[in-house]
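Q: Can I see a sequence and its folded structure?
A: Here is a first one.
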Amino acid sequence: MSTRLTSFSKILIVLVVMVVLFFLFRKFIPQNDRKSADASEVKTEEAKQNSETVNEEKTTWNKSFNYTPTKPVNGKLKGVVELGASGFNSFIVNMDNNKNWELKKAEWGNSLVYDNMATSGDIREGLKRYITKILDYGVDGRDIHFVVSSGAQKVESTKKIIRELKNMNYVVNTVTPEQEAKYALTAVLPNKYRTVAFVVDIGSGNTKISWVQNNGSTKGIETYGAKYYKNKVDDKTVYQDVFNKSKLIPKNRTKVCFMIGGVPFKLAKEVRKDKERYTVLKDPGDYNVEGAK
């Protein structure tokens, strides 16, 4: 027995099938769409965060120190030669009677004088060539000052150089780590920062930390230098000593840290603008360190 469907019945069946298909699509298809949408939102957020990170890094690299030192008036050229543990560092400055100064020329890590030091004659000739370069710049011979860093005094070859300089009638000043720390502070720290900042001088043989105490005197302390590894000292020992020494700095003097030395100079070269005296370093994690630093 067969049953003939009316037109109305056919229409009802089609509607039922469409409704079923609608709910089936709604149950399964939107989930996939939602996942895609969620994934899209995640990718968009990640891209935004990455963009913000890049922009933040660029901002860090472009930071500047808003301080303009007082220029010297009617100054005079003076030369300072530091006998460091790794070589000679020379500086020519223009300085006035009020101790305002500006750097005119600098040479870092010149080891020529340390080379070929078999005889006293070799040392003397090497020193003469080195001093002549400073004289040729216009510095009076009486205004060339030699300073032996506290780290260099531990190097045997330095004693030969000091002896020859004295034979050439130059005055050679030897300094203790505490004195060196004080001199670094005097040269680097602007007066307006004396009550809020401290100074770190990172040398090859040792590091000097200094700050101005409440009574106006300067306090200087010593810790390991940048090349501590040459003395077979492990990283943990150095870290602990630096950490302990840093705790001696009064909290109200830690707002700004001024750093000098060979390693800070190399780090500053990556972001230094023209011949600015002060350069803001990048965050430690932003540097790609090569070698032992």
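Q: Show me another, different protein.
A: A second, unrelated one:
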Amino acid sequence: MHLVKMHGCGNDYVFVDTIGGPGLPEDTDVNRLAVQLSDRHFGVGGDGLILIERRPSGRLGMRMFNADGSEGEMCGNGMRCLAAYCFGEGYVMDTRFEVETLAGVIAPVVTPEPGERRVASVTVDMGPPREVTPGVVVALPRKAGGPPGPSESPPSFRGTFVSMGNPHFVITLPDVEDIDIAGVGPLLERHPAFPSGANIEFVNVLSPEGLRMRVWERGSGVTLACGTGASAAVVATATGGLTGRRVTVVADGGDLEVEWAREGPVLVTGPAEEVFRTKYSKAIPRRR
């Protein structure tokens, strides 16, 4: 099986090209394969698996699986990588094209290096937010280890729920550097307030044009960046009057430029880099 490893701001994925390559056997257990490939010690290592497909409509298709094997609706950083790869391989000739996902049809625009098929950056039209609900309060269970004191109450987080085709909970804090993401992230992701789970963004407003963001991704855990998460963060803070609609989002893995047109789509611009190509020799898991 031939694989391509790519990342956008450190949000890294393993790609299987089913257009130019042999693809996967029909009985492949893709969920288990995603877990196997994403393992950073015994696999290739990544935040998930993305299948590059050609759909009956003639459009490109994207299937995205998180590191835990669950299938996600869409991934902004993964989409930029897919767009850069497919443009470089000649699967599309125009710099703007459409990709079918579980979140709908997404339209990336590549900016190539002068005179080359090599891509300098990619802008992804994420579409408009599907839902924006400010003022959501989520209370977490008390820590185990004894009864609470007389004034102790369960920790709670107030934020904005945003759907970008996938669910996000954006929490604005004075400082995000010391937040225990690995501790509270999974509790928020799986909270009953979010029946389908949620991606969790912790953001600090740096200025009307700047946000610091750290991420717990649904199904993958702590990641260095999240394209849909950056979109949700700007939608949440702009809705709350904390930022404008053109914002640089500083993630752990790099910067993303986000623009939200009034009553329109969210555009995210950032890098997409190929790390390596390889042949994977381990057995492909099959459906039982």
